[in-house]
Design a protein that fits this description.
The chain is built from 22 helices and 21 strands. By secondary structure, the protein is α+β, with helices and mostly antiparallel strands.
Length: 640
């Protein structure tokens, strides 16, 4: 298959129009992104203990050149600001390390040490960020750790800045919003495999970095690929107005559940007139439904909490900073910034509902909605990470679900069968490709992508179709202002040309699995039960956890794994098997093969009753596919 294409005249013309219509003469963001600079990490790379590179900010040096025609000029501007890397002073006693991961790490100086806010994704990048701070501000101990919310880029590097011993001894309390741990592990385990695979598309993990490849992700450049850790919170923030003091630093909290994350919080430093807005206000329109997949977020609640933050803290603040991008200084300016962010989410919500109640579908609303001029012209409201288009569809989905009400769409054929029928109706693959090439030459790339997708799904061996689709995806990527759209399009082109790239990150990492509660562990197990294969199996197992003096029951019946605490009841049926041991040992026994055999032989676990029962249960488990196809058809599901 041929190499990458050049930007077409249609893409170039659209870029020129964007240059003419957007306020490129407004350079305040550039000034803010560089304000307070102390020092950079030299070189701007981080490696793990084996010498593998887990972060390379220097690979984005090309963004300092003039904008090429293969990148939307607004996205080029955004990524050029995001690559600013190093230690920055936010205000007296508050520093940020930016450009060493997708997120920022904030450091607040206390009486005896420092409080770290959001220790990045990986232990390696977090340790590098802390070392950079200490080089220029002294070797202060970490006396507190705060997670703003439950996404991995805000807690994964915890063991890079502190130790389990310091946390368990109380020397380093860990603060998080209520519900943090439940949501942190559930998101990364329940649908972790599928999310991780799609994240490779979203962040362009397989793409070369450069003007025709990955230029960033809008929220940050990309995700680090080091070691993910998780230290559970020792103190939960449960209500707005809760005040805590860490190492002499007074902090007043505002809980904001259901905004950018299901468990999230803003907080205010009254002695420094500084406001942390977590990820509820950044220099981009955020996602209401991220392209990697997640629960749909609530823009109405989001906007309401921003109003509350303005009223509680905004007019008492002199600087607002977030877990991504750069701060905003000056009371009037930060209040206006937060207000426009608030108006952005409220407008999308309210106008989508207005049109929804007039009978329009999500796709129709997304194509026609227009933002008010004051929001449209605000750089921080541009769609670099989220987009107006896919956020409107998410709002529709939140309220109305997948069905648009048209009976013709109620029971459509699945993708492969639908594609075969489309291609046949349109005169066969050759005729579809002939017409598609004409549409391609006319710059109608959205239509080309749609119709050529039918040919690829009807016959994934059609090299001409895959080549044309790859070219089409590239043109759509070159013209995208949204970084994650660009990465999806270009990764699709890459896989059509070079094959399935798999998943570069681990969805169900050990850090998440080990943090699961008993209930969550068996929830995750239930999600992997092969229903049809286990229809006729009936298995009852009691799990006695010796380190918690707790007995838990699982019952497989009708293809469903039911689980609950074992209660005393004369009518409760006896178990087929009782498995006894510590929580780590019993959870280890859920892995079939040598782990189970070794645990029983060593005495870590004891099995009373039918010894074949547990292996039989484990044999009912299906395995996730970490490299499922996305731009070419997957194997059809078997009919049940």
């Amino acid at each position: 298959m041929t190499g990458s294409t050049e930007p077409s005249e249609h893409v170039v013309a659209a870029a020129e129009a964007a240059k003419a219509s957007l306020p490129f003469d407004d350079t305040r963001d550039a000034d803010d992104a560089r304000r307070g600079f102390v020092a950079a990490l030299e070189p701007g790379t981080v490696v793990d203990g084996n010498g593998n590179t887990v972060w390379d900010n220097d690979s984005y040096a090309f963004l300092r050149d003039a904008c090429p025609s293969s990148v939307h000029p607004s996205l080029w501007r955004q990524c050029g600001l995001v690559i600013e890397q190093g230690l920055y002073e936010v205000t007296d006693g508050i520093y940020q390390v930016r450009g060493l991961d997708l997120s920022n790490m904030t450091i607040v100086e206390g009486d005896a040490g420092i409080v770290v806010i959001d220790p990045l994704i990986s232990t390696e990048t977090a340790a590098a960020a802390l070392a950079l701070y200490r080089t220029h501000r002294g070797d202060r101990p970490v006396t507190g750790l705060i997670y703003t919310h439950s996404h991995v880029d805000h807690f994964g590097g915890a063991l890079g800045v502190t130790t389990r011993d310091d946390v368990e001894s109380g020397r380093c309390p860990v603060l998080a919003p209520t519900g943090f741990l439940e949501h942190a592990v559930a998101e990364n385990v329940y649908a972790g495999t599928a999310m991780a695979r799609r994240s490779g598309y979203m962040y362009g993990a397989a793409l070369p970095r450069g003007p025709k490849g990955q230029v960033g992700a809008g929220l940050g450049q990309t995700t680090s690929v080091g070691t993910v850790s998780l230290l559970p919170p020792t103190l939960h923030i449960t209500h707005t107005g809760q005040e805590e003091t860490l190492d002499g630093v007074r902090i007043v909290f505002q809980i904001t559940p259901g905004t950018e994350a299901p468990a999230e919080m803003n907080f205010y430093f009254p002695d420094r007139r500084a406001l942390c807005v977590a990820e509820n206000a950044t220099h981009t329109l955020h996602n209401l439904l991220t392209l990697r997949g997640a629960l749909v977020r609530d823009p109405h609640v989001w906007s309401t909490y921003l109003t509350e933050a303005i009223n509680l803290f905004g007019r008492r603040s002199e600087v607002a900073f977030a877990s991504h991008h750069w701060p905003t200084w000056g009371t009037d300016r930060l209040v206006e910034y937060l207000s426009v962010q608030r108006d952005l989410y409220a407008y999308l919500h309210d106008q989508t509902l207005r049109r929804l109640n007039q009978g329009y579908t999500g796709i129709e609303i997304a194509e026609t909605i227009q933002l008010p001029p004051a929001i449209e012209s605000a750089w921080h409201a541009r769609g670099y990470y989220g987009s107006v288009n896919h956020n409107v569809k998410a709002i529709y989905q939140r309220y109305m679900g997948w069905f648009d009400g048209n009976p013709a769409h109620l029971w459509q054929h699945p993708p492969i069968e639908s594609a075969r029928r489309h291609v046949e109706f349109m005169g066969g693959a050759d005729e579809v490709l002939r017409k598609a090439r004409t549409a391609y030459d006319a710059g109608d790339y959205r239509w080309v992508a749609q119709v050529v997708d039918y040919v690829v799904y009807a016959d994934p061996t059609n090299a001409d179709a895959k080549a044309l689709q790859a070219n089409t995806f590239e043109q759509l990527g070159y013209g995208a202002e949204n970084a994650t759209w660009r990465n999806f399009y270009l990764t699709g082109a890459h896989e059509l040309r070079h094959g399935n790239g798999g998943t570069p990150t681990q969805g169900n990492s050990t850090a998440f699995v080990s943090a699961l509660t008993v209930e969550q562990t068996f929830d995750a197990l239930a999600l992997n039960i092969d229903g049809p294969r286990s229809w006729h199996s009936h298995i009852v197992i009691d799990w006695h956890f010796t380190d918690a003096d707790r007995t838990y029951r699982t019952e497989l019946r009708n293809g469903v794994l039911i689980h609950h605490d074992r209660f005393d009841d004369d009518g409760l049926p006896s178990p087929d098997t009782t498995v006894t041991g510590t929580r780590p040992a019993l959870f280890g026994a859920l892995r079939p093969g040598p782990d189970l055999a070794a645990a029983t032989e060593s005495g870590e676990i004891r099995i009373d009753g039918d010894e074949a029962t547990l292996p039989h249960l484990l044999s009912m488990l299906d395995r996730p596919d970490r490299a499922f196809d996305i731009v070419t058809p997957r194997q059809p599901l078997p009919e049940t």
